[in-house]
Amino acid sequence: MDAQLLNSIVTWPLMLMAAWVAGEWLFGRWRLPRVFSYSVVGLLLGGIGLPQALANHPALGLIGNMALALTLFELGYRVNPRWFRHNPWVLATGIAQSVLTFFGVIWLAGRFGVAMDQRLVIAVLCVATSPVAVLHAVHELHSSGQVTERLLHLTALNCLIAVLLLRGVVGYWHLETSGDLGTAAFNSIYVIVLSLLAGAAFGVIAPLVNRVATSSQATTVTFALAVLLLTGIAQSLHLSPLLAALAFGALARERRIVLSHAQRNFGALGDLLTVFLFIYIGSLFSWQGFLGSLALGAAALVLRTAAHVLVNLSIAHASGTTWRKGALTGLALMPMTAFAMLLLEESRHYGFDLARQSLPMLVGLMVLLEVLGPLVTRRALLWAHESMPEEN
Length: 392
Known about the structure:
The chain is mainly α. Helices cover 79% and strands 0% of the residues.
């Protein structure tokens, strides 16, 4: 047997086991979020170069997308599109904080001498919020209430807007490099529309298949397989599996498909893939640019958080909540890394070379958010008093 293959077969399970044990131990001892532990282990392993030596196989990227797609499906299912119509201020909050973050980061990166093309990429990624960290915090705390619901809906909006903005940046980059406006526009629209249509198609087909399910486990497996299949199809067609999975979940909710019997986070499969996701993200980091990008990362973190808090605070009363809960909602939106990294990696695989060139300037911000994001989200939900009593 090939030595490198044998090394991968043994080392990946060891890395996953280390992250899982750390997550369970730190959660049980100090109630630290499990994804915080997975993030730290992934970053430490990435720092010593262990995952990088094993991450060249293209199947690993597909598995990473599948892991995030399961979470995005669940997030999409938790979103109620009718709420945006009944309370348009929530929709306005999501759009306003995204716009403020986007243009604020473009301005900030310019102060650090970053080229405009790379400033656009950094700004787009700062719009995103990590659904993995947010949903895991909600699950671990059994959280429910105004802050929780707004957090979930704004996270979904941020993810959607980030994907749309990145497609616009990709189209702009193709226009700059090729000068063909028609091709640039077609490629961006093609990805967005077909990704949404693919998710919608699965929203129609999957419930028909689910009729044969006889238990909660069967329901879980049915929809997990549907999401995994959708991810594979989307990636093979150079679509956005992340956008497709989000659309799949939202349509399932809109058609009132009952998933109450399905296991939370897709059961053991979702837990295992979540651990893999954070180890895989660690493999994408290069610590060589960490110190050089730390100042920009810290400044972007402050600006991004301030934009979220400011917008949610200013629109709180108009949208039907208190200023305190508005500020806590904005604070809870801090996590970003998992979604941003896979969005960046997805674009790179589809020929967007600027994605990889921009990564060294993002390392400082990503590391800070990877560590601080889950902790801040958990603390914000606790301060909002929306967790179960035994979790306080």
